[in-house]
Specification:
Structural class: alpha/beta
Radius of gyration: 25 Å
CATH topology of the largest domain: D-Maltodextrin-Binding Protein, domain 2
Number of domains: 3
Distance between the termini: 69 Å
CATH superfamily of the largest domain: Periplasmic binding protein-like II
Number of strands: 11
Largest sheet: 9 strands, mixed
Order of helices and strands: HHHHEEHEHEHEEEHEHEHEEH
CATH architecture of the largest domain: 3-Layer(aba) Sandwich
Helix content: 40-55%
CATH class of the largest domain: Alpha Beta
Shape: flat
Low-confidence stretches: 1-23
Mean pLDDT: 79
Number of helices: 11
Length: about 350
DNA sequence: AGTTTCACAAACAGAGGTTA
DNA sequence: TAACCTCTGTTTGTGAAACT
């Protein structure tokens, strides 16, 4: 039955064409399967049918058939098939934009319905980058929970690039993520200004050497964050390596701060970490600070939220509380491991 | 290598019949 | 009349083979 109602024969007169289009549009809006749009959204995000299949936990064949059914419903090609090249047709771009919006609205609907069930119990879903080191941040959650004990909180850890994507789709209340440049449609508030420096671990040959210069490091292998690929949130680290003429290779990677640190301590190579996050490891002799003295680069963590998402009461309370809380502290205070006194206005 | 097509199977929904 | 069962058609998935 699926696409039997889609009329593909060309009609001769313009009047008939208009009637036909109106009828067809009506039928599409009545019958369009949201699952197909969701599948198409993932295909476009992954830029691959097999990639989408992995993400959706179905076979590549199932995704291919779903795409065909969607194309039949619209009576248009949505993706141009080329050898090893993926591109959306203009119709595909239109469908993607619509699917993106619908996905956001459905996510908000789920949140609103959940809120409506229990008027006094809200729920917030916050996406956070791996391992945020800040006593101010810890204190925020303590304060927030005391003030709003019935608000249910979900904190989900994921790479910054994923966080930005999901917040743009209105798929969560807010995100705390590294950003090189501010993404479209998102509001932001600067949270942490982190300075990255080079370190090696206790089993590395450079550990404990205090008279090192940059030349001593150029042949060393690297431990890196997955996100320091060019164009990603930590790409300044890669640019630094290229500009300074490092000849070593990246021998170990992880998207998680603690795992990068573990690999550094294990002696896989040298690598960058936020200075303020490893003071304890330096004090206890697990890590060793390397040149350059001034560090490698800065990377800022921002609180991100969608500019025109519908928000529940709990979500509004969270955003207001977070912004108010961090504004009480200077950027330097936000990096401290122990909660400082609130700054004087 | 990635994608499409085909045959087949499982799950599901709706229609219709039966029974208490 | 509600509850249950059976049958049938549809949808959507898998796996294999063919295609680009």
């Amino acid at each position: 039955m699926g696409a039997a109602w889609v009329l593909l024969e060309p009609l001769s007169s313009e009047r008939h064409e208009n009637c036909h289009m109106k009828e067809k549009t009506q039928r599409i809006s009545d019958r369009l399967d949201w699952n197909l749009l969701r599948t198409f959204l993932v295909i476009a995000q992954e830029k691959s049918i097999s990639g989408a299949a992995v993400k959706l936990h179905v076979t590549q064949s199932a995704v291919s058939q779903a795409l065909r059914r969607l194309e039949e419903q619209f009576g248009r090609r949505l993706i141009e098939r080329h050898h090893s090249r993926f591109c959306l047709t203009p119709a595909g771009e239109e469908v993607l934009a619509a699917a993106d919006t619908i996905y956001g609205n459905v996510a908000q609907l789920a949140s609103s319905v959940s809120d409506a069930d229990e008027q006094t119990v809200g729920r917030i879903h916050v996406l956070v980058a791996s391992r945020i080191h800040s006593a101010v941040y810890d204190a925020f959650w303590a304060t927030f929970h005391r003030a709003h004990p019935r608000v249910e909180v979900e904190l989900e850890v994921m790479p910054s690039s994923e966080i930005v994507k999901i917040i743009q789709q209105k798929g969560a209340t807010a995100g705390i993520a590294l950003c090189k440049q501010m993404p479209k449609r998102l509001e932001h508030s600067l949270f942490l200004q982190q300075r990255y420096s080079l370190f090696c671990g206790q089993y590395h040959s450079l550990f404990g050497k205090s008279d090192l210069t940059m030349d001593d490091l150029l042949g060393e292998n690297f431990v890196s964050f997955t996100s320091d690929a060019l164009g990603d949130s930590l790409s300044p680290l890669t640019i630094f390596r290229d500009q300074r003429g490092f000849s070593g290779t990246v021998v170990a990677t992880s998207s998680h701060h603690d795992e990068v640190k573990r690999l550094l301590v294990a002696g896989f190579g040298i690598g960058c970490l936020p200075e303020h996050s490893v003071q304890h490891d330096l004090d206890e002799g697990r890590l060793w600070r390397l040149p350059p003295e001034e560090g490698v680069c800065s990377a800022n963590l921002y609180l991100l939220w969608h500019e025109d998402a519908h928000r529940t009461a709990a979500e509004r309370v969270f955003l207001d509380a977070f912004k108010t809380h961090i504004e009480q502290y200077t950027p330097a205070q936000r990096l401290l491991p122990i909660l400082p006194q609130v700054r004087q206005q």
